[in-house]
Design a protein that fits this description.
Structural class: alpha/beta
Helix content: 40-55%
Number of domains: 4
CATH architecture of the largest domain: Alpha Horseshoe
Low-confidence stretches: none
Strand order of the largest sheet: 3-2-1-4-5-6-7-14
Shape: elongated
CATH class of the largest domain: Mainly Alpha
Radius of gyration: 30 Å
Number of strands: 14
Oligomer: single chain
Strand content: 5-15%
Number of helices: 30
Length: 694
């Protein structure tokens, strides 16, 4: 064997003179084609150049001469992994480890192959073998953390990432993964610090700017979030979803500069099927149901596509009662939890078995305790991964699984992508279609989705006879405080809009400012959502020639009964468009506060109109911005008409369908029974209307 030429080639190789090294390796092989080490080293050089096909060929030639030789066999596994041939790579790593079970790198590589193949628990065991042999292996700790993240074991994953960065403080990817884990644990302030460290190591990374921007947005640091997203878009104008986060952050801060231009760019991107905006972030930006369908379809295909092997393949169980599984992260003191509590309590136990699958935070508020008591079974799955939760639901033999979140908050839509139930329903949490082939029905009402708009919804529509929002006459209202105690003037008209600030926009605010100018002594009462929004709204008022004091900001009130009592101090609730008040509309109407809405085309822009029809006040639904403004001005100047509406609203609390939780629950159950009857007959989902009682 020509050791001297190989040593010379190896010297060039180690010095980074790869062309010279490759030439010398080939010179050796011209005279000694059976030289195993020349083949192996030339294969390693190709691997270093990311020429994986050539590397694999050289490793195979070496193994043809000396089968089972450790080094080319390990190299072969790594080349196969990089070529995406993970099953073959796994076999190669197993062969390496059969001969040398103490090779830590091969245990780690084997874990990587298993992780890619979706065999996550096996991957963790393989990483554990690697780390037992080499506990100072930072890459191994990072890989183990990635696998644990997939299993939903976020605390354990964070511990692994902590090990990785402790061993290698310059490990940018591990800092990024650590930030992701912290974000999922709700420790977003720490996540931002971890992203700062990662960006210091990888300056200019669009991914890191985007992820840090998301963390800032969730923390309510909207200016920082917008700045990070602008950095992303400056580097990559098509970076997935960054434009949507930028727009949402600016809306949260009521910074409306440049939003029309951004809106146009989002619309153009959706037309090209680009990942410009999440379905949720589009709600306050667009009134087009076609755009909302496009955004949902793009998001589903990208973030939570259907599983290749669905769990419930047309199962038709023969349970005595329909088994309903409600899935949510909002079984706490949240809008969805409080709206649905009365429904859960009123389900007919003779016909329905109800189970809650909760992946949200655990709190011990009265709302949580009430919700836990409302179900026959309440299962906390916070520590489980999406597939594991889906398999749990499949094991429960759920007849109908109801997603109460859709694309909101810390949703887990991938649970439904596994198709754990034969029928899957999108309801309440997300105002619109999920664009997902695995969601069979969307529960709505005729106002929300006119029949001619059904084509813009991936699901079939189950129409309830009244409003799709559940009301509850048991909600307590405290004694009303004085206006002075709420920071309001004792006299003068009080316009209010207690929506989230991201629902506000320049067009609606212009109307509100004109109303303040026309109605002397009036004020606009808004929630104190965030400091940036308050500053920007005050500045906008001054641009309209009004003192900032004409806007009064209300601090949050944790107690629901006190919040409702305070709402009653206002004279007229001014709704937002294109994203209406939803649960907030229910609050206002229950508190006896008349609400004026502007109906649009999209689901989110028709919810308040649905509620007003169900409370027998359709005259408070405006069809155009001009009509909305004229109606608001008329009501502010006509005390008698407004008093009459308030009286009708007080009466509606005991008579209107909107607050009749018992009848609502029976209607909802009728919808579920119709779905299940069709399924048991082998019929596909179809849109239908629940009949109004005679």
């Amino acid at each position: 064997m020509s050791e001297a030429p190989i040593q010379t080639a190896l010297m060039h190789h180690r010095a980074g003179r790869l062309d010279d090294a490759a030439r010398l390796y080939r010179n050796v092989l011209q005279t000694e084609p059976q030289n195993v080490w020349a083949q192996y080293l030339l294969g390693s050089l190709h691997f270093q150049r990311r020429e994986f096909v050539q590397a694999l060929a050289r490793f195979d030639l070496a193994l043809a001469v000396k089968p089972g030789l450790f080094e080319p066999l390990a190299g072969r596994g790594a080349a196969l992994s990089n070529l995406g041939r993970h099953d073959e790579a796994l076999a190669a790593y197993d062969a390496v480890l059969a001969a040398n079970p103490g090779h830590a790198q091969s245990w780690s590589n084997r874990g990587n192959a298993l992780l890619t193949l979706g065999r996550v628990e096996e991957a963790v065991r393989s990483y554990d073998k690697a780390l037992a042999l080499m506990p100072d292996f930072a890459d191994g700790w990072r890989n183990r953390g990635s696998a644990l993240m997939q299993l939903g074991r976020i605390e354990d994953a964070l511990a692994s990432f902590d090990k990785a960065v402790a061993l290698n403080p310059g490990f940018a990817d591990a800092w990024e993964d650590r930030a992701t884990a912290l974000t999922q644990l709700g420790r977003r302030g720490e996540a931002v610090i971890a992203y700062d460290r990662a960006l210091a190591l990888k300056p200019g990374s669009p991914e890191l700017f985007y992820n840090r921007g998301n963390a800032h947005a969730i923390l309510g640091h909207y200016a920082q979030a917008a700045a990070d997203c602008e950095e992303v878009l400056a580097r990559d104008p098509d970076y997935p979803y960054a434009r949507g986060v930028l727009i949402h952050s600016k809306l949260q801060a009521c910074d409306w500069t440049g939003l029309e231009d951004q809106r146009a760019k989002v619309s153009a991107a959706l037309a090209q099927r680009k990942r410009a905006v999440s379905p949720f972030n589009l709600k306050a930006l667009s009134d087009s149901p076609a755009e909302h369908l496009s955004a949902a379809e793009i998001w589903t295909a990208d973030q939570c596509p259907p599983a290749a092997n669905p769990l419930a393949r047309g199962a038709r169980y023969a349970h005595e009662r329909i088994r309903l599984v409600y899935v949510s992260g909002d079984f706490n003191n949240t809008a969805v939890g409080n709206l649905m509590a009365g429904v859960f309590e009123r389900h007919d136990r003779a016909r329905f078995e109800t189970i809650a699958v909760s992946f949200g935070p655990l709190d011990r508020t009265p709302s949580r305790l009430r919700l836990e008591a409302a179900f026959e079974r309440f299962v906390d799955v916070r520590a489980r991964g999406d597939e594991d939760i889906a398999r749990l639901i499949r094991g429960m033999e759920a007849d109908i699984a109801v997603d109460l979140m859709g694309f909101t908050g810390q949703c887990r839509s991938a649970i439904f992508a596994w198709r754990p139930a034969p029928l899957q329903v999108n309801y309440l949490g997300f105002p619109g279609t999920m664009g997902a082939p695995y969601m069979d029905y969307l529960i709505a009402d005729p106002t929300l989705i006119p029949e001619e708009q059904q084509r813009h919804y991936a699901e079939k529509i189950a129409y309830l006879p009244h409003c799709y929002l559940p009301g509850d006459r048991s909600r307590a209202i405290a004694d009303a405080p004085s206006r002075a105690s709420a920071g309001l003037p004792e006299t003068g008209f009080v316009f209010a809009s207690f929506n989230n600030s991201y629902k506000f926009n320049a067009a609606m605010f212009d109307i509100w400012m004109r109303l303040l100018r026309e109605v002397k002594g009036s004020v606009l009462w808004l929630p104190a959502n965030n400091a940036e929004a308050r500053r920007n709204l005050a500045r906008e008022a001054e641009k309209h020639g009004l003192p900032a004091e004409r806007i009064v900001f209300a601090p949050p009130i944790p107690a629901a009964d006190a919040y409702l009592a305070r709402l009653s101090l206002a004279d007229l609730f001014l709704d937002t468009a294109p994203y209406n008040a939803h649960s907030t509309a229910m609050d206002a109407l229950w508190a006896g506060l008349p609400l004026l809405t502007l109906i649009g085309n999209s689901f989110a822009s028709r919810v308040a109109a649905s509620a007003l029809k169900a409370v027998n006040l359709p005259e408070l639904i405006a069809q155009t911005p001009e009509q909305y403004e004229a109606m608001a001005l008329k009501l502010a100047r006509d005390a008698a008409s407004l008093a009459q509406i308030r009286a009708r609203l007080r009466e509606a609390r005991t008579t209107a369908p909107l607050f009749d939780a018992h009848t609502f629950t029976r209607d909802l159950e009728s919808a579920f029974e119709t779905m299940w009857a069709r399924h048991r007959e082998g019929a596909p989902p179809v849109s239908f209307a629940v009949a109004r009682p005679r």
